[in-house]
Amino acid sequence: MAHTVHREDLDTLQDDWARLLEAVPEPVPFVHPAWQRVWLDEFLDGRELHLYAVRDGGELIGVAPLLKDGDGLTLVGHYSICDYMDFVVAPGRARDVLSALLDTLVGEDWSQIELRGLREGSPTLEELPALAESKGLTWRCEDEAVAPRITLADGWEPYLASLAKKERHELRRKTRKLQGAGDLEVNTYTTPQDVEAHLPVLLRFMVESRTDKANFLSEQMGLFFHRATQALAAHGLVRLYEMELDATPVASVLCFDQGGQFYMYNSGYDPEYAAMSAGLVSKGFCVQDAIESGRHCVDMLRGDEAYKYKLGGEDQKIYRCVISRA
Questions:
Q1: How many domains are there within the chain?
Q2: How many C-beta atoms lie closer than 10 Å to residue 90's C-beta?
Q3: How confident is the model at residue 1 (pLDDT cuts 50, 70, 90)?
């Protein structure tokens, strides 16, 4: 039976889409239908959603969330909010999905398809260039950013041993310094109610700890953070960490927990504790929790901030690719 490609509504597709995402080897929260619904509600801005479902008989094997903007198509999302973007394809079916999708798209009205946020190892990167060229389209690709990630060791001490000597010593020293300053405790919030109650602490620390984050966190962006974390927490995908010293919050880290790995999405700390490296220590506790929870990786997402490498992050590349009509 030939593969079929149809535009579908998010309401009717979302349950099958979420189940398909669970089967993907390295799913990311930014292509979860719950996240994408909130993004579309907040940022669609007059563009048109073209949501394609690729099926093999009655089985959903691919989802292509695209936006029509003038004569161009882009993936749903924006790189400033959605660190990774991509199509969702069933394991081992990328060629089938992308070939069927391109067969449909070549008959539609566009001049360019821009795909940002494709991470290293994506089936899209592996299969789409040759498929595009076989259908008379041109393909070009360029480096867009890096996203350091930590491959976790089997235990906290082996993880520490994997760090460079200087970084290992500094993480231990800074952690001990904070622990010696008072009663240090890290709380983890996962339910929608708890996440909603404690998210304002994170947002406040984001604004107070870094100017770029303060500029980024507009009223609209703050609302998006609330709605998106609620949507993902309802699916069990959120871990919000709050580090307290003598019962006073001093740092907060928002992680997404999906596919056996943590995605360290955003963080902040009280500037009064900057000299005690509250930000770095709080992230160290996140890594420790990931190890103790049996996760295999902590993905620190887009950006080359120094703390990511201090914690043992190694770069993976993010690409921007463009398909054009020949």
A1: 2
A2: 19
A3: low
40 and 130 co-located in one domain? yes
Domain enclosing residue 191, as ranges: 149-299
Q: Please answer whether residues 150 and 313 qualify as being in contact, where contact means their C-beta atoms are separated by less than 8 angstroms.
A: yes
State the burial class of residue 316 (Cβ atoms within 10 Å of its Cβ: 0-12, 13-18, 19+).
Answer: middle
CA distance 128 to 272: 49
**Is 265 contained in some domain?**
yes
Q: 228 in helix, strand or coil?
A: helix
Residue-wise pLDDT for 284-299, tens only, equals 999 999 999 999 999 9
In the chain, beta strands by DSSP E: 4-7, 48-56, 59-69, 72-75, 88-89, 112-119, 137-146, 149-151, 184-189, 238-245, 248-258, 261-269, 297-299, 317-325
**What are the tens digits of pLDDT across the range 127-142?**
999 999 999 999 999 9
Please tell me the pTM assigned to this model.
Answer: 0.95
> Is 312 domain-assigned?
no
Q: Tell whether 306 is covered by a domain.
A: no
Task: Return mean pLDDT, the chain.
Answer: 96
